[in-house]
Design brief:
By secondary structure, the protein is mainly beta. It has one domain: Single Sheet (Rubrerythrin, domain 2). Helix content is 0%, strand content 52%. Strand 1 and strand 2 form a beta hairpin. It is elongated, with a radius of gyration of 11 Å. The two termini are 16 Å apart.
Length: 50
């Protein structure tokens, strides 16, 4: 994956970076997904970080 399109997802509860993904450059707003967090041991909202 190219570093330009690579984004990180951070858990909003424990602030750990758990997931990496690619993003379409045309989308300007930040993504928010409900993902499983290993540290919290449950589903939590993950927000895109730089």
């Amino acid at each position: 994956m190219s570093q330009e399109s690579l984004i990180k997802f951070e858990c909003t509860q424990c602030k750990k970076v758990n997931y990496h993904s690619k993003k379409n450059k045309k989308i300007k707003n930040r993504l928010e997904l409900s993902k499983f967090c290993k540290a919290c041991k449950g589903h939590a909202l993950h927000k895109e970080t730089k």
